[in-house]
Amino acid sequence: MKRLWTLFPLLLANGAFAACEFDVEVGDSLQFSVSEIEVEASCESVTINLKHTGQLPAAAMGHNWVLTTDADFQDVATAGMGVGLEGNYVPSGDDRVIAATKIIGGGESTSISFPTGDLDAAGSYTFFCSFPGHWSIMKGSFRIV
User: What does DSSP assign to residue 29?
Assistant: First the structure.
């Protein structure tokens, strides 16, 4: 057993374990705790754990995490505004949405896992909060590396 633990740092240094799960925090401001997420190509799926560290309710300062291609980002965000809080400000059944969490308020958490098989390392992806007025500021890049 001791021998395995001595190999653990070597395995990490050589990329034997890929980062396939990410914690993202957001509070009562318009800012994610990360502006870039890089998923290793060896990950078959990725999990995003979203935590709202603020105090305001979802109706006042709700946040979610939505992933689209860069090209689809603005159109999806605009379409989501018409859906309302009940629909998490994400157009239902929209093929342009790669992944999306529900809207959460202060003190709440949510997670989403999705496969990476259809994502291209050469592709350009944007994650954002689709709550009205948030998406133009609350966004970041998502890449397969």
Answer: S
Question: Was domain 18-144 assigned CATH 2.60.40.420?
Answer: yes
Distance (Å, whole) CA 62 – CA 129? 9
pTM of the model: 0.87
CB 55 within 8 A of CB 108: no
pLDDT in tens, 18-34: 789 999 999 999 999 99
DSSP string, 78-128: HHHHTT-GGGTTS-TT-TT--EEPPPB-TT-EEEEEEE-TT--TT--EEEE
By the 8 A CB rule, do 40 and 32 touch?
A: no
